[in-house]
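Ticket 4471: requesting a sanity check on a complex prediction with pyridoxal-5'-phosphate. Repro inputs:
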Amino acid sequence: MSKNNSEIPVPAHESLAAQALGKVDDVTRALVPPLHLSTTYERDGDGGYRSGRGYTRPHNPTYDEPESLLSVLEGGTDCLLFSSGMAAATAVFQSLLPGDHVVASKVMYWALRSWLIDFAMSWGLDVEFVDTTDLQALGGAMRPGSTRLVWIETPGNPTWDITDIAAAADIAHAAHARLAVDSTVATPVLTRPLDWGADLVMHSATKYLNGHSDVLAGALVCREKDSFWNRVRAWRRDGGAMLGPFEAWLLLRGLRTLFVRVRHSSQSALQIAEHFAQHPLVSHVLYPGLPTFAGHEIAARQMQGGFGGMLSIRVKAGGAAAVSTAANVMLIKRATSLGGVESLIEHRATVEGPSTPVPQDLLRLSIGLETPADLINDLEQALDRAHHVHGDPAAAPMGG
Ligand SMILES: *Cc1c(COP(=O)(O)O)cnc(C)c1O
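Returned structure tokens:
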């Protein structure tokens, strides 16, 4: 990059995020942008709108800055915020046509998977779930001419399976299909799917992007503003799955600290994963940062600067002991969701119900910003106490 007295190199993404792109309010010179609550805008005498805005559903200015920032962080050309991650994801599928064929990761966010199964039936979408970590299986599922979309989640909930984004993009593009990536867990701090060839990136902004467990929001970022993107935008405008302006404002505030939060959580998660990898009461630690993890090599390539703040442990003594471990934590919160400043633990099989593919002995952990030693101590004592009751799986009936 050229440099002279009046120029500095283009700031790093971390710097752009910290300053929310550095914009200062035109009118007041405020560093923090105003919150625009107005739902409507004055029409000019000639019937036009000189501001380019007429009504809040498509045009609230409070969306502009978080959308611009997310576009930049993901390396895309446009971003749309939604009222939730589910609203963002479903807008993509609702922009497909009946009869279109979709290939989706078998391991993915539970609520989206169940919605997709129901929606496919009523909308006439042909959805096929495959193990997208297996590139041969993915390639074999493609039907050139009718496959319109490949949907992957990586790392995938809650086993953190890693799909090779670049390879999936090649396979999708060879069949003239788009590749969409649910990148909620990786965040643009660790992975930029568009750089690896994806066409769309989706986020539950409820999670790391906002990061404080106090906003429900979603986002889509596109590589190109093509006709499909226009359909997604029209769906958002007409379906009205918009977040409130205050949520957009809070989201921008959360994004300013995204890089430090994700890096800290990733470092702590790695430390915790390493600690429990050899633990006598734990049979498996599922974490892409462990060299023994199946997708580690791909993760090391497509995730930069860390492997994320999500990990799962499988309790050796079984399902009842896992439930009891979660019941015995004292610092970590028992709650669903992820990506917040506070660490959370959850027995996913209970949440997902009888048809879940998730093992009964699995506990999902979202690592927050507490000191890792405190989290390790808490898990140690919870595992110990659960072990005293359920230590011998043959002696205690399986619950949970
Ligand atoms: C939470 C989550 C979603 C859904 O997002 P909401 O904001 O809860 O609607 C989708 N994908 C992943 C990976 C998630 O963690």
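Notes from triage: Residues 258-390 form a domain with the Aspartate Aminotransferase, domain 1 fold (CATH 3.90.1150.10). Leaving this open until the requester confirms.
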